[in-house]
Amino acid sequence: MKRKAVFVLAAVLLLLTTGCWNRRELNDLAIVMAVGIDKVDGEYLLSTQIVNPGGVAASKDGAGGTQSAVATYSMRSADIFEGIRRLTTMTPRRLYFSHIQVLVLGEQVAREGTKEVLDLLFRDHEVRPDFYVILAKDTSALHILSMLDPLEKIPATKLYKSLETGEKAWGSVISIQLDEFITQLLSEGSEPVLVGVTVKGKVQTGSNGNNPQQESVSTLLKYEDIGVFKEDKLQGWFNEKESIGFSYITDRLDSTVEAIPCDKNSKLIIEIIHSKSTLDGRVVNGKPQVEVKIEAEGNVGEVACAIDLAKSQTIYKLEREVEKRIKEKIQNVITKAQKQFHSDAFGFGQVIYQNDPKGWEKVKHNWNEAFADLKVKINVDVKLRRTGKVGNSFIPFIKKD
Amino acid sequence: MLGNSLISARQFFILVTLFVIGDAVLYVPSLTATSARQDAWISALIGWGEGFLLTSLYAALSLRHPNRTILQYSEDILGKWAGKAVAFLFLSYFFIDASLMLMEIGDFVTTQIMQETPIEIILVLFAAIIVMGTRCGMEPLARVSELLFPYFLLLFFTLIAFIAPQIKVDNLKPVLAHGMAPVFGGNFRYMGYLLESVVLIFLFPLVKQPRHAAKAYIMGILIANFFLTIITTVAVLVLGPNITVLLAYPSYTLAQKISVGNFFERIEVLMAVIWFITLFIKITVCYYATACGIAQTLRLTDYRRLTLPLAMIMVIVALATMPNRPYFDNFVSEIWMPYSLTYGLFLPVLLLVVGGLRKRLGK
């Protein structure tokens, strides 16, 4: 009897407790790949890029190609959360935010202040902390999200991937996730930065669905410059060279190239394959001091002139040259941050706090002024190891008539 | 009375370890970092000493009264009425601890995983498992903890190993910039969790060899401290003190941040099994102690009859303890430690001292 009762109970439970309370089937979800936030006339313009599974899947007969892989919806609203919910009046499915890859902030939002915008994405349980935050430079986030790329069907994936590759191979691009940005906002003596992305070419043609099929692409998205913030407001941009200098200082640089002029009109290119930066900061006699030490390793990558690479002496001379280049880049970016933006984007204050907390107590109250006059000692040590598959270039040996 | 079940010292050791890790693995990183910031790991390190002292106290007390539970010998020591009063105080503590943790699991699931599911459903389902476990008795429960322990170890070290590449050592600097005061502030909350291990004193008479049980008690809390120190340190190393403080569940966020080679990621729900295991053990031990203790104090023949009605009350108490999250945060960070101090330190010391005096005067 008891056995039977247990059996019946188990059967009833099995029926009643299957599945989840708030289950959402995959075909009811609109998977958001990217979110863009702009500010228009004091209101937020919220754009979401939703993936269209039918358009992504490549079918054998090529039928998949006719559908667009993404749809971008946008909605104006006074608040972000309100905007997201109001978007459901346009989208056939409920928005699902767990797969966001990038958050694009319009330049206007960044200039007016980003803090109100970010809280929801930091707080909501559905949003995971592993997406990148980027800035739309000279354009709106909506425009950025509307651009189609020939290689990646989903613009959000294109943004995500070229961010990662650009950071690894060139160094003017930095990938910042939301929690890093917030950490920079919260830590004393450090200001946040975000990489900018912009549209190259005429804007009108890019959003046309035919763009990927065209042979030569007239508009493309391009990462360009690093936006420097003061608290949560964008102050200005580091250009490409300065951005590489910034990456050197903050130890974000994996690999890049440095060009050295070797005679009147030709150059020698060095590939930096590894760079390590060590920062040290102290307060000496009431004056803050920061030392930046860069240890880099490189190879000779491209030679377009007559230079005798068979000699070690030449290599040593080249090392000094590269060191000079890197030092220049670093000096330029620091000067720009000090004089133009008054923003400690490198976190020098944080470095002083970490190495000399007592000294930091003395300078932190007027750190803005102290940073502007901060003396930064820069040490660069470059070691060149290899010259590639060949020693000397073939160029000087080309036969002359 | 206790079902005549006996557990081995090894099982007791695992019970202590999982019990102390319990809900602490979820809350300790942000609670210690709130005051100690990047020195949170030092707050946790101090806990090793405190854990050692506390469990030595509990072991000493238990060894003086072999084969009697703390509820029984408080009657022996303090007399029938005062003893019974103390016994009921202890029981209330066991029960409130169990309810609070049940609420924690409900809050965790509804905050991080299933926001729209009513919390009552989660509480009732989890309470059902606890009741089933408790009705089986302590011996099977101890065996379950033995079975779950390897899974716990595997998941915990997976979490640490795969988040390790994201460690930034600079996050720990500067060390002790603001002196020891904030570190002790962080330790204050940490100790609240260690004091809860007093609940395990109830299981002490069940262990076959009391001498080994004392050792297992102390070793168990030290190993638990080891895990808690690691999770605290790693949370600060990866997330930084600023973010760790803000998060409701930093350990879960750590798991969310795992991403190896763009394919080994989104495994946070698997990692949540870590605290489902430890919380199950902790709540069940608390619940078992409550049910058994009530039966013992009221001289009932079988504690099993109490398990169902008690579970209903536990679910209601759990719902009532948290009108909202700030209320609970405030309770955990300000009130829980002094409240636990009464049961974890004051009452055991009282029993030890009065018991010692009685023995001496009796001679």
From TrEMBL, chain A:
Subcellular location(s) of the protein: Membrane
GO biological process, one term: spore germination
Superkingdom of this protein's organism: Bacteria
Domain Spore germination protein N-terminal: 22-198
Topology relative to the membrane: Lipid-anchor
InterPro entries the record matches: GerAC_N, Spore_GerAC-like, Spore_GerAC-like_C, Spore_GerAC_C_sf
Gene3D superfamilies: Nutrient germinant receptor protein C, domain 3 (3.30.300.210)
Residues in Spore germination GerAC-like C-terminal domain copies: 226-388
Record carries keyword Glycoprotein: no
TM ranges: none
GO cellular component terms, semicolon-separated: membrane
Keyword set, alphabetical order: Germination, Lipoprotein, Membrane, Palmitate, Signal
UniProt entry tagged with the keyword Lipoprotein: yes
Family: Belongs to the GerABKC lipoprotein family.
Protein known as: Spore germination protein KC
Organism: Brevibacillus parabrevis
Gene coding for it: gerKC_1
Automatic annotation (TrEMBL), chain B:
Keywords: Germination, Membrane, Transmembrane, Transmembrane helix, Transport
Ranges in a coiled coil: none
Mode of membrane association: Multi-pass membrane protein
One term under GO cellular component: membrane
GO biological process, one term: spore germination
Transmembrane segments: 12-28, 40-61, 81-105, 117-136, 148-167, 187-207, 219-249, 269-294, 306-323, 335-357
Record's subcellular location: Membrane
NCBIfam families hit by this protein: 2A0309
Family the UniProt entry places it in: Belongs to the amino acid-polyamine-organocation (APC) superfamily. Spore germination protein (SGP) (TC 2.A.3.9) family.
Protein name (database record): Germination protein
Organism of origin: Brevibacillus parabrevis
